[in-house]
Amino acid sequence: MDSVVAELEGSLVKDPDPFSYFMLIAYEASGLIRFSLLLLFWPIVRLLRLMGQEDAGLKLTIFISVAGLRVSEIRSVARAVLPKFYMDDLNMDAWKVVSQYDKKVVVTKTPRIMVERFAKDHLMADEVIGSDLSVTRLGFATGLVTDFGTLSGRVAKLFGDAKPSLGLGRLSSFGNSESFMSVCKEQCHPPFTTSHKPLNGYVDRPRPVIFHDGRLVKRPTPANALLLLLWFPIGVPLSIVRIIISVIVPVWAIPYETPIFCGSLIVKGNPPPPLSSTSKSSNGVLFVCNHRMFMDPVILSYALGRKIPAVTYSLSRVTEILSPIPTIRLSRDRDIDAKKVKKLLEKGDLVVCPEGTTCREPFLLRFSALFAELTDRIVPVAVNCRVGLFHPTKARGWKGLDLPFFLMNPTSVYEVTFLNQLEHKDTCSGGKSPYEVANYVQRLIGKTLGFQCTNLTRKDKYRLLAENDGTVRYNKTS
C-alpha cells in the first residue's frame, strides 16, 4: 500500500503560520477580549519565531488561546469553523500529490483537536499526528500540550517496520520537519508537482465544505484582526443608525438609501405586479427563494418596493420585532403549516425559503415540497449576497445578534433575480408531483446562481455543526 505523510502548515495549507487559526479559536470559543489579548501578544510570538524559538512562540499562542476553555467548545469551533478557512488556504499542488496515495497521514504541531476534523472529513486522511491539549478532570484546557516535538517517533511507531512511501513538507517547519520526513522512503519539498510519483494518475478532489459556522468572513491574520478591532467602535453605532433607518423609512425608499451606507441592491428579472382587486386570481403569488441569510425575505421586499409577508422557523424575537415586513412563525408540523400558508396566500403574496435553513457556500439544500402542494402561482427567486466582515446568521449563539452583525458590515451586496412564474405544466395541477416541482425549482435557482444542488437538509447541517459525530455524506449532490 502506497502511503504519504504530509505536513499541514506551509505544505497542505499555504500559510506556514497557524496563528490566525488560534485567533479563530479565541474569538469563536471565548470572545473579543481573548481575541484582543492574543493579538496583543502577536509581536512577542513573532519575535520568538525570528529568534529561532518557534516552539516557544507556538506554546505561548496555544496557552493564550485555549487556557480555561472547555474542550467541548474548542472541538465545536474545530468542527464548524476551522475547516472552511483551512479549505480556502488549501495548496492544490500539494493536494494533487497527496491524493494519489492510498494511506494519508497528516502531521502538525497544532493541537490535533483543531486539525483532525478537517483532515479526516475533507482530505480523507487516515491518521492525524499532532500535539494533544492537557485537560483537567472537569473538561477544561490548561493551555499546556503533550507529545510536542515527537513527530518522527510517532510516525515510525504508526508504520512500524514499513516506512511511508513519501514524506511531504518544508525544509524547516518549527525546526522539526526533516525529522519526520527522515523516516520516509522519499521526500518531497515545495514546489510540489504531480510528476513526483504519478501512481495511477487519478487525482481525487477534496470534499467540499458545505456547512460552516462562525461570525468572521475573513481569516483573522494579524492585519485582518487589527482592522476588525478598529472597525468595532465604528460598526456598532453604524449598526444602530441602520436599524433605526430600516424601521422608520418606507420599504419602497430603502433601495435609494442603501448606497449612502455602502450597501448595494441589484435586481434582475421582471417580478409580477401586486395582486389587484380586479384580478381574476383569488390567491397571491408565492415567491420561492433560496436561503443565504435571514435577511432574504426583507431584501426581496425591498426589491419589489412593497411589504411581502414571510414565513419563518427560527427567527429571533428581536429580529421579528425590528423586521420591516410581517413575519409568520411556522411550527414544522406539516398539516398546521400548510393550513397557515394557504390562508396567507388567500390574502396576498408571500415569501418562503424551502431550504429551511441558510447555506453560505455555493450549494443549494434540498427544497421542501410543501410549497408546491399549496399553490400553482410560484415565482422562483435566486438570491445571492456578499458581506465584508461578519456573517450575520450563526447556528451557535444568540440569534438576537444576527441583525446587528449584518448591519455592522462596512459593505454588503445583495443580488435578487426574479425568474418567470412556473408554467401550468410544471406545477402540481399540470400533473407533476410536489417533489418534482420542488426539485425543478431548486435546479432553476441553482442554474441561475451557478450553485450546485444537493440532497442535504437542515438536519444534516445541524448534525454536522452541533454533534460530536458530525460526519455528513458530502456526496449527496444532485
* Helical residues, percent: 25-40%
Trace the largest sheet across and list its strands.
Answer: 3-2-1-6-7
Strand residues, percent: 5-15%
Number of structurally distinct domains? 2
Number of strands: 16
So what's the overall shape?
globular
Global structural class: alpha/beta
Structural Rg: 25 Å
- How many H/I helices? 19
- CA-CA gap between termini: 33 Å
Summarize the structure.
The protein has 478 residues and is α/β, with parallel strands linked by helices.
Structure description:
By secondary structure, this protein is of the alpha/beta class. The protein has 19 helices and 16 strands. The chain has a 5-stranded parallel β-sheet with strand order 3-2-1-6-7, sandwiched between helices. Helix 1 (19-29) crosses helix 5 (71-80). It is a multi-pass membrane protein. The chain crosses the membrane at residues 20-42, 225-253. This is Phospholipid/glycerol acyltransferase domain-containing protein. It is found in: Membrane.
